Amino acid sequence: MSAYQQWKKLGKPTDHLMECWLLSQSNIPTTADDHVWAEWELSDLASDDPEKAWECILYAVPDTRFSDHLGLLAAGVLKNLLSYHGPDFIDRVEHQAKVDPKFAWTLGGVWRFQMSDEIWHRVQAVWGRSGWDGIPAKA
Q1: Is the pLDDT of residue 139 over 60?
Q2: Of 70, 85, 81, nearest to 132 (Cα)?
Q3: Higher pLDDT residue, 7 or 125?
Q4: Among residues 70, 133, 138, 136, which one has the least CA distance to residue 107?
Q5: Numbers of helices and strands, H then E, in the chain
Q6: Which of the pair, 112 or 135, is modelled with greater confidence?
Q7: Where is the DUF6869 domain (predicted)?
Q8: How does the average pLDDT of the chain come out, rounded?
Q9: What is the pLDDT of residues 9-60, one digit of tens each?
Q10: DSSP 3-state assignment of 115?
Q11: Is residue 38 a contact partner of residue 17, using CB atoms and an 8 Å limit?
Q12: What radius of gyration do the chain's Cα atoms show?
């Protein structure tokens, strides 16, 4: 049974999706190829199931195994979530950025895409840009 079939059979659990997404980012071609479905599923969640997308983001950010891939998460599912469902999630995003510096830093990797002016300004007010785009990282 493939990892995708197993994920569906298990009821599409967040942890399984995110573990497979992490494997899809690996440099081992067979592992990445076997789990590329997780990239598409995670991307689709931002528009199709925003609550599940938020759950996936919150699952990944504190886990150190995802640290090298948070930029991909920011520029992908987090950016899309805020673009498609910004009014529904911006309060939660602001709160999370204020209580979790790692989340605020991850938010610093988001780009505007289709966010309204209001949502974009609120994102910028709480993001942590240190270490992004040549901005020196704080020691």
Answers
A1: no
A2: 70
A3: 125
A4: 70
A5: 8, 0
A6: 112
A7: 31-129
A8: 92
A9: 989 999 999 999 999 988 877 776 788 999 999 999 999 999 999 999 999 9
A10: coil
A11: yes
A12: 15
Do the Cβ atoms of 75 and 94 come closer than 8 Å? Answer: no
Identify residue 59 by its one-letter amino acid code.
Y
Q: Which amino acid is at 126?
A: V
Angle subtended by helix axes 29-48 and 50-60, to nearest 10: 130
Structure token pair of residue 35:
């789990």
CB 115 within 8 A of CB 82: yes
Neighbours of 93 (CB within 10 A): 24
Q: Work out the angle at residue 34's Cα, subtended by the Cα atoms of residues 15 and 1, and round it to the nearest 5 degrees.
A: 75
Amino acid of residue 94: E
In angstroms, rounded to a whole number, what is the distance separating the alpha carbons of residues 79 and 70?
Answer: 12
First-to-last C-alpha distance (Å) of the chain: 46
- The encoded tokens of residue 36 equal 């590329």
Which one-letter DSSP state was computed for residue 132? S
3-class SS of residue 62: coil
Q: 3-state class of 136 per DSSP? A: coil
Q: Give one word for 134, left, alpha or beta, with left for phi > 0 and alpha for psi -120 to 50.
A: left
Cα dist from 78 to 25, 71, 83, 103, 126, whole Å: 17, 10, 9, 11, 14
